[in-house]
Design the sequence.
């Protein structure tokens, strides 16, 4: 009788590298989220935000905060699940992408952000965030298709 169970693919070294780097990178987004809620005035001031930017950040509607949370915590979960070789990493990164699309869509398409929050540096950071998430989603999808994630 043939063995009906398939043997999972070996874990490539780059999965660990991408997973750990992603975990470190995505942890910053979670720290930013938590600190913005625990000590908004102090934390946002320490990030160089003036009164206008702080007021904007503190006035986020609850539904937007939910999508921001999905974005940052989804990415962190995706990185952890990738390290654990779980196929659910793909879903976590997709949820994170949904959070990013809604949160930044609101910010850039009419959320009333002050002009100082649309500087080339801020836009550049947004591009880096989008790129990192796209790579993580693509990579986890490839690893799932290759049978590395179970």
Sequence:
């Amino acid at each position: 009788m043939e063995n009906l169970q398939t043997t999972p693919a070996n874990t490539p070294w780059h999965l660990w590298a991408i997973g750990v780097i992603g975990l470190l990178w995505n942890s910053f987004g979670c720290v930013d989220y938590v600190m913005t809620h625990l000590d908004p005035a102090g934390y946002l001031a320490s990030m160089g935000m003036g009164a206008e930017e702080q007021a904007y950040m503190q006035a986020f509607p609850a539904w937007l905060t939910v999508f921001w949370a999905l974005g940052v915590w989804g990415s962190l979960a995706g990185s952890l699940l990738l390290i654990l070789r779980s196929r659910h990493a793909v879903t976590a990164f997709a949820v994170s992408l949904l959070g990013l699309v809604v949160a930044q869509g609101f910010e850039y398409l009419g959320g009333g952000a002050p002009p100082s929050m649309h500087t080339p540096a801020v836009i550049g950071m947004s591009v880096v965030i989008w790129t990192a998430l796209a790579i993580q989603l693509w990579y986890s999808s490839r690893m799932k298709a290759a049978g590395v994630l179970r």
Helices lie at 13-38, 40-46, 51-58, 62-83, 88-108, 120-145.
